[in-house]
Amino acid sequence: MNLTEKFAVLRPVFALSFETMFEILILIVVLLLVFGAGKVRSAGSDLGAAVRGFRKGLKTPEPPHPPGVPDAEFPEVVAERERRSGKPGA
Hints:
Order of helices and strands: HHHH
Largest sheet: none
Strand content: under 5%
Number of domains: 1
Structural class: mainly alpha
Shape: elongated
Number of strands: 0
Oligomer: single chain
Distance between the termini: 84 Å
Helix content: 55-70%
């Protein structure tokens, strides 16, 4: 019989032990020492802006492209088409 299973204390999954919180605190201190408070703050705000932009991109779909209007083209493609057809603007 495994005594560890019998006497194990069940904790919620999200609960952090003291050792884990202490390790996270050490990581935060090392990050602050290596990069400085300004870099860490700007990285956090950049990450937040990226997440907000991603969420905004998921929420608002692009309007459908009208079928009669051509999509944007490269000038080289337009020039090649004009050269082949012999008509400008075709």
